[in-house]
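Readers of this paper often ask what the protein records in our data store actually look like. Such a record has a labelled line for the sequence and another for the backbone structure tokens. The tokens are whole numbers drawn from a learned vocabulary of local backbone shapes. We quote a single record here, exactly as it is kept in our systems:
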Amino acid sequence: MAEIAKKEDLIVWEFDFALTTFYEIDTDYIEHLIPRRLSLMEVAPGMGLINVTAFNFPEGALGHMPEFQELILSVIVSPDLSRGVPRFAMYVLSLASTCQEHLDHSADYYKLPISGKLTKSTIDRDALSISYDSDEGNILTMNNCDATLDYKSEERYFQAYTSDGGEIYIADITIMASQYEHQLAGNVGTLQTHSFFHEIDMEEAEPIPYLQMIGRPGDVGKQSYYRPEIF
């Protein structure tokens, strides 16, 4: 990772649950959602990737915040290799949370696009499944589909792009956690047609699960998220 960011621009977020699924989706559904300066990563001709990530942050974030749940939608784009080689580079499309203060902070500090507040969140740590709702209704259900769960403690580097006021921003993120990933086929839940997904007709788009990342429930992981800078 490039030694560009200053330590005072770093916030470390601790989490005790994380579930991520990447989905293959036709680029026609997502290409118009990213700035022209960025380019989609394709896993096959005409097929891009979206990422849906759920976190549970225990009480104490930023020193005073209550426990809250977060849901993020991103599309996978080409990285900035001058900063290092990330596991993935993501352009963030939507952020939802059960905590309004977290939403306000994320919009101001991280330039993240706020979808809205989650009105209901259900986490089953034993089954490794979630269900999240907003005032529009259910956003998604998501669950692990592999029973192996061979967790390993490791650090991974990601890049997060956002945009605000016509500017594109980039932030460096590292995640240190006990985690497991797999690419096994199976039932990973349902994505709904919802404003969180920019009204993509999910029944028509038929997103296909590509990869899952799972944090060991109950173990504290650390997300080191640097303040974004103009790209």
Notes: The chain has two helices and 15 strands. Residues 89 and 123 are 27 Å apart (CA to CA).
